[in-house]
Amino acid sequence: MKEMSPDEIRSFQQDRGLHVTGELNDATVRAIEEARWKLGDRSLYLQNSPLMRGDDVASLQARLTEMGFHCGRVDGIFGEMTESAVKDFQKSVGVVVDGKCGPATIIALLRLTKIVSGGAPTALRESAVQKNRGPALANKVIVIDPGSQDYEKEIVYDIAQRLEGRLLALGASVFLTRGVNNNPNENDRITFTNQNGADLLISLHVDTHQSPEAHGVATFFYGNDQHGVHSIVGERFASLVQRELCARTDFLNCRTHAKTWDPLRLTSAPAVRVDLGYISNPGDAARLSRAEFRDTVAESFIIAIQRLYLAAEDDAKTGTLRISDLRGAGLRN
């Protein structure tokens, strides 16, 4: 790998939806390795951990998806669902069915991609699953992931508990990825979320910046502009969270953004990360220090979650729905 300047690293990180630091951290090194593979450079197959990763895997998944073969999320990781989709494709074109994307499979894939398209079945499937879950929160599994940096851990854990209490009152099943005294690593949190069959993951954080002028709230969802893929439900939920928070508080709106961070990319359920202001900004710090403000933040999340599951005709305008309305609609006990 040729040496990259800090500006080149920052540009690469920006293009790939990573944290823009200008430093060659582990995530950036992995992304650089993934970026060097193009479809056809190597045979792709399911292997023991670590799984094969790369832009070639993402291209394979995108092509299969376009033709209607279900390989799950286009995440650039060759897992069991991708292998199954490759086998289904191989059956359909009459090549050896072994789940390996070698020369014969790649040739067949490239020939057919130009003439066969299935629209956006993954997006449709994700939206359908979300709609079929129904509007009530009583059967939903929601994982809350409070950040654990020293400057944020007490604030976001307190907000997580306030959100947890309200969700439990609405009948949802709620799991927190950490407690007061434990701090699982990122991979453990992802595994915990997937093993509990989450319907949603909400990762709570507070940001910090060298400039005290930086302030406001931002929400992130899984998306990769390079491959033209994103989580349909994740993007909608991120938009709802951002809009409710900005309508109900005086946070500056720093908008929603597509990112490829592992908690968003590797979590099976729709996932969002929310940066609830900057602790380095006096105004945001003062807001977050107030109990009533944290209550408003928690209630904003509740309304965003409920709006995600409401049918379009039952939805309400941003900032107008109240938790008490949910009881009247029969959506809580």
Automatic annotation (TrEMBL):
One of its GO terms (biological process) is peptidoglycan catabolic process. Residues 190-306 form the MurNAc-LAA domain. GO terms for cellular component: outer membrane-bounded periplasmic space. Gene3D superfamilies: PGBD-like superfamily/PGBD (1.10.101.10), Zn-dependent exopeptidases (3.40.630.40). Pfam families: Amidase_3, PG_binding_1. GO terms for molecular function: N-acetylmuramoyl-L-alanine amidase activity. Keywords: Hydrolase. The keyword Hydrolase applies. SUPFAM superfamilies: PGBD-like, Zn-dependent exopeptidases. This is Unannotated protein. It comes from freshwater metagenome.
